Amino acid sequence: MADALDELPKDVRDEYTYMKVLPDGRICGVHRLMFHWTMHVDIGEIGWEDKYCFPNQMSATKALEDWDGTGDPEGWHRHLQTGRRRNLQTGEEWIAF
User: Fold this and answer.
1) How far apart are CA 60 and CA 39, in angstroms?
2) Residue 26 vs residues 1, 21, 37: alpha-carbon distances, Å
3) pTM for this one?
4) I need a surface site. Which of 5, 10, 30, 54 has the fewest CB within 10 A?
């Protein structure tokens, strides 16, 4: 599965602080944004298919290390594609695009 990472262009791999190939073959990576961190899911040469936002690098990296690709990873506070947001202190979840 590490070969899948090697098949991505170096400039794509260099955008991520941590990358992993899920059991189903999707490539995921932790990427820094201006005010928070994100986990990109199903990374390819020209982009990604899904992403989860995290408050910091440590929580994003830990979530990706522990995630097997089913359900949602732990510790996210925003899921862009569904508009879901989560209060990490209370666990409250709502939709806000």
Assistant:
1) 6
2) 10, 6, 19
3) 0.92
4) 10
